[in-house]
Amino acid sequence: QVQLVESGGGLVQAGGSLRLSCAASAASGRTFSSYVMGWFRQAPGKEREFVAAFNWNDGNQYYADSVKGRFTISRDNAKSTVYLQMNSLKPEDTAVYYCAAKFTLAPSIVAMTSKYDYWGQGTQVTVSP
Fold first, then answer.
1. Which one of 41, 49, 112, 118 is most buried, by most CB atoms within 10 A?
2. Element (H, E) at 3
3. Is 12 exposed, middle or buried (CB count within 10 Å of its CB: 0-12, 13-18, 19+)?
4. How many CB atoms lie within 10 A of CB 35?
5. Helix/strand/coil for 115
């Protein structure tokens, strides 16, 4: 079993920045070297959508077109933590942001919500105009 805990959400003005964190842990002591870690978001009345993903095994990163050039996903191996640095935030970025994990995932399907096995509780990000 894998536990994911997000933090770092909050209220920010348009053009501002936030950094979200996702701390991962496993009861079995399993490492995350072969996991894909994803960030998704869900705005009120909308479906959950892909934001970014990081393949812990090879370091590859994947981004939704809507956040490319503004958001950066990264990791801290020692802390088993994945970060989402969000810059130049827009009101349309307002949503609950979720961290997700999957043990190995082909690049072609990292954006698919249904493929992830583990989810965090979510953290609210609100961007004011």
1. 41
2. strand 2-7
3. middle
4. 24
5. helix
- Between CA 117 and CA 12 the distance in angstroms is 31
Residues 6+ apart with CB under 8 A from 54: 36, 37, 38, 60, 61, 62, 73, 74, 75, 82
Determine contact, residues 1/104, Cβ cutoff 8 Å: no
Check: CB of residue 72 under 8 Å from CB of residue 85: yes
Dump pLDDT digits (tens) for 32-70.
Answer: 777 899 999 999 999 999 999 998 888 899 999 999 999
Q: What is the pLDDT of residue 30?
A: 66
**Cα atoms found within 13 Å of the Cα of residue 86, Cβ hemisphere only:** 33
The DSSP line for 11-78 is: EEETT--EEEEEEEEETT----TTEEEEEEEE-TTS--EEEEEEETTT--EEE-TTTTTTEEEEEEGG
